[in-house]
Amino acid sequence: MASLLEGFWDEAIDDIRQYIEQVQAQVQHRRDREQRVAELTASSGNRFRVEPDQVPQVIADLRSALDRIRDIRRQAQIIANTTEPGSDEVSRNAVRQIGEMAMGTDGSLKAALDAYEIEITKTIAGLEDDLRTYLGVEQVNVPPAAVWP
């Protein structure tokens, strides 16, 4: 019986160890990606290059990011409107301060989200303009079908 339990525990521990290794690998991969993005961003001088065939996907990804920002803003609004858990001064003060951090004017989560939304919206508009220009130029430069062999 003891050997059966020992085998069960050994197997469980191995499974847990493998799971932990997978999670650590995922965390390391995410850190590597974040570091790479930081390096590219720092060296880009606030500019980046996107290949024309990738622009529609980048725009879709940025619109998805805007949706996520709006979801986070809604959650922040809910947090800011949380009812005080008690009628004491500490509870009232905590709720007020948390509400200010979530939806205040300066240095709040809302202020950061607003800034992100503005910049992402400007980036989307710029990419759309660039794509329209690119497609217009490409249509002019493509010879008619009769010229192709």
Give structural notes.
With 149 residues, this protein is mainly alpha-helical. It has a domain at 1-44. The chain is built from four helices and no strands. The longest helix has 43 residues, at 2-44. The radius of gyration is 26 Å and the shape is flat.
Secondary structure: elements and pairs:
Blueprint: H1 2-44, H2 55-80, H3 89-103, H4 109-141
Supply the key terms.
single chain; mainly alpha; 4 helices
Beta content comes to under 5%
Cα-to-Cα separation, first versus last residue: 81 Å
State the helicity in percent bands.
Answer: over 70%
Question: How many helical stretches?
Answer: 4
Structural classification: mainly alpha
Order of helices and strands: HHHH
Largest beta-sheet details: none
**Count of DSSP strands:** 0
Gyration radius, to the nearest Å?
Answer: 26 Å
Identify low-pLDDT runs: none
Shape field: flat
Mean pLDDT: 79
